[in-house]
Amino acid sequence: MQQRSRIGSVGFLFDLAALFASYAAALSYLVIQWKTNGIIPDQLFVELLLVATTFLVIALLYTRQRAVEGGYAYWAYILSDPDHIRNAHNRLLRRFFSSASRILCGIAYGGLLVFFVNSLGLIDLNGELQYTFFAFLFFANYITGATIYSLISLLTATPALVRNMRIDIWQVRNPATDFFFGIILRVGVFASIYVGLSMTSIIFSQIPVDDLVFLYIVFSFSIVTASILVPYTLYSRRVRDTKHEILARVSSELTSITNTILSPVQTDQEPSKLTRLQELAQLRSLIDQISPIPFQTRAISAGITILAASAQPLIAGLILRVI
To answer: CA 93 to CA 88: how far, in whole Å?
Structure first.
């Protein structure tokens, strides 16, 4: 486990370096702005974005640690060969947290955002103020871009992760589902809180807030919501299919026993057939009561958190418009 725990640490080191760089750039920007203008009109924007970025890095570290432990239990529940378990687990960690594509995605996202803001003239800054502001935007959004890559990787891996799981309608909670839905709900909640904080920070920046920003907010939360709904939909469909297969077998035997009992030819086995009929009827009732949606309480709590976080920037924007 100690060796496995180092998998994915490279990506986190890049995230941590970007976080420290964003703090240095933000401090330089605020100091230069104070010396140049005597005021800092977008101080709240910088502070909120730093808080959001710091929260995201901590959330990524926590999620990675949980993935190291729970991910191994997931594969150990599905596979039997220790080498296959270790290799599958390490591939999953590298894909989510430490691939070169993740680092490149972070660089591209941060660079494109700076280019977009600069080319459209969304902010009027010159000299050192411009350089430090764009450096702050780049490093903070590098982490955002890298996280988006991890989120998309999780979504694309979801069908295979669901397909690998053994469906046991009598044991919905097992090491595989604990890991899978635990990380899905955790990532969804963490991402929604980060998006809420970062989008709220834009409202307090010098960047003009228009309908495009609010459309981006809706788009961001749509991705976060999909990251929870898609896995739940895929898994629930497998549970429903398994239930239908078992119920079909139960119904077939119920029909067979019913036809035997109703047959004009009576046998000595009729009392035992009635007992079996009652057992199957009770079994069918129990299966019908099994919900195909696991961890309903945790899912509802995650949904409430996402709704609250998504409403945060919208409420802040409405308040500012009224004021």
So the answer is: 9
Q: What does pTM read for this prediction?
A: 0.79
What are the C-alpha distances in Å from 51 to residues 108, 200, 213?
A: 22, 11, 20
Find the largest Cα–Cα distance for the chain: 103
Other CB atoms closer than 10 Å to residue 202's CB: what's the count?
Answer: 20
Q: Spell out the alpha helix ranges (H) of the chain.
A: 9-37, 43-78, 82-93, 100-119, 127-164, 175-203, 211-262, 270-289, 296-322
Nearest to 143 by CA among 311, 17, 36, 266: 17
Rounded to a whole number of angstroms, the distance between the first and last alpha carbons of the chain is 55
User: Which amino acid is residue 189, in one-letter code?
Assistant: V
Residues 146-203: pLDDT tens digits? 988 888 888 888 888 888 888 888 887 788 888 888 888 888 888 888 888 887 787 7
Picking from 290, 302, 295, the residue whose alpha carbon sits closest to that of residue 174 is 295
Q: Which two tokens stand for residue 304?
A: 């409430």
CA distance 132 to 28: 6
Whether residue 276 contacts residue 257, with contact meaning beta carbons closer than 8 Å, is answered with yes
Q: Nearest Cα to 122, choosing from 63, 193, 206?
A: 206
Average pLDDT over the chain, rounded to whole? 82
In 3D, which of 54, 266, 280, 295 has the Cα closest to residue 172?
Answer: 295
